[in-house]
């Protein structure tokens, strides 16, 4: 669907729609600031102005502010310069994989991946490079991926992670947790892509093949360790 950005009135309506949720005690925060993630923030016409506007409304509403997280394909995008507090990769490791492990059917043109048929990567190989080193000077968070297959929607431009298992996902999640375990508890965050993105084979909810094992892996690493 087309994304449009009509201006300040639309920004205010969006904030008011979410305001009640921001004050809910269950809402995740960083130092009291509700976390708000923006997908492809570089598509915003003026990200800094939008963030300044919402920060102003948040303070007037009685919040200490909003903790803005940029969800990007390129972790070199200048999030801090555009008013963001943190970054998390959208599909971690995929761009790096294509550049350094080009498939016979893949071309890189101006940084874009052009395929003649879907790329298939073994999940056990993918997780070896899916968690790059995080910056120390600016908040970056790891993102774990349980599985992926978007060929029903993207066809030959699709990308498939093959042979994912709950056991490999558990290793992947354990490594991500280790990246943030020494941080202050408020910044001890790991993003999951995704909980229930069934249309792209990207979920941890129970299914007929693995039952609850992906959820049990999360419980084991997050709660029991």
Summarize this structure as a short list of keywords or feature phrases:
alpha/beta; 32% helix; 14 strands; 225 residues
Shape: globular
Q: Helical proportion?
A: 25-40%
Structural class: alpha/beta
- Summed over residues and divided by their number, the pLDDT gives a mean of 89
The H/E string reads HEEHEEHEEEHEEEHEHEEEH
Percent of residues in β-strands: 15-25%
Biggest sheet, strands in spatial order? 1-2-3-4-8
In short:
The chain is of the alpha/beta class. The protein contains seven helices and 14 strands.
Task: Describe this protein's structure.
- The chain is of the alpha/beta class and 225 residues long.
- The chain is built from 7 helices and 14 strands.
- The chain has a 5-stranded mixed β-sheet with strand order 1-2-3-4-8, with no helix packed on it. It has a 3-stranded mixed β-sheet with strand order 7-11-10. The chain has a two-stranded antiparallel sheet with strand order 5-6.
- Strand 1 and strand 2 (33-39) form a beta hairpin.
- 25% of the residues are buried.
